[in-house]
Specification:
Largest interface: A-B, 24 and 22 residues
Helix content of chain B: under 10%
Number of strands of chain A: 12
Shape of chain A: globular
Distance between the termini of chain A: 41 Å
Number of helices of chain A: 0
Distance between the termini of chain B: 36 Å
Strand content of chain A: over 45%
Largest sheet of chain B: 7 strands, mixed
Number of helices of chain B: 0
Largest sheet of chain A: 6 strands, mixed
Oligomer: heterodimer
Radius of gyration of chain B: 13 Å
Number of strands of chain B: 11
Order of helices and strands of chain B: EEEEEEEEEEE
Chain lengths: 113, 115
């Protein structure tokens, strides 16, 4: 069965600095990988996904993620953080055999002015 | 373009009462998912439907939980009888078919408090 880990509960960065939110996964075969963001009292919003092809995926709000097969990672990145990026971020993995999507525990990103 | 619509947004009730959560998926989406989110367990998949048919309900915690999808535009998650440990935020999500590469679109959730 597939699983995903987000090793950091909390990430703090200063506005304007680059940010990275880490994600590693475990799945048999090739994965589909997703990042979602959750703002307070809201549902999860889709940010980006990796299906195949280019290892660097670009998504909404200037976010991007890099698929690294050898390290089984899919870290979320942004070159310059905004205070408004402060939210809860979830990594998710789905294998190609079923529709069961596994979410990580979430990482709370705080961007300070 | 309306997203996934859930009702009610908040529900407070006493233990032992029946609770019904409602979801309207995005039109044209043929997958529907119910999740529960708590601080302790994070996001848990409870059940999902494809073309109104339940496909996997292995995440449903107990027989007190039941879910139905009588048509393509409506689903319910029912808890009867409710218990304080059922307090959580319940999310509904929908997605298109066409493979497992489709993202899920979430509603804003129902915050359930069982007293």
């Amino acid at each position: 069965a597939q699983s995903v880990a987000q090793p950091e509960d909390q990430v703090n960065v200063a506005e304007g600095n680059p940010l990275t939110v880490k994600c590693t996964y475990s799945v048999s075969g090739n994965p589909y990988l997703f990042w979602y963001v959750q703002y307070p009292n809201r549902g999860l919003q889709f940010l980006l996904k990796y299906i195949t092809g280019d290892n660097l995926v670009k998504g909404s709000y200037g976010f991007e993620a890099e698929f690294n097969k050898s390290q089984t990672s899919f870290h979320l990145k942004k070159p310059s953080a905004l205070v408004s990026d402060s939210a809860l971020y979830f990594c998710a993995v789905r294998d190609k055999l079923n529709n069961d999507m596994r979410f990580g525990a979430g990482t709370r990103l705080t961007v300070k002015p | 373009d309306a997203g996934v619509i859930q009702s009610p947004r908040h529900e407070v009730t006493e233990m032992g009462q029946e609770v019904t959560l409602r979801c309207k998926p995005i039109s044209g989406h043929d997958y529907l998912f119910w999740y529960r989110q708590t601080m302790m367990r994070g996001l848990e998949l409870l059940i999902y439907f494809n073309n109104n048919v339940p496909i996997d309900d292995s995440g449903m915690p107990e027989d007190r939980f039941s879910a139905k999808m009588p048509n393509a535009s409506f689903s319910t998650l029912k808890i009867q009888p409710s218990e304080p440990r059922d307090s959580a935020v319940y999310f509904c999500a929908s997605s298109l078919s066409g493979g497992q590469n489709q993202p899920q679109h979430f509603g804003d959730g129902t915050r359930l408090s069982i007293l």
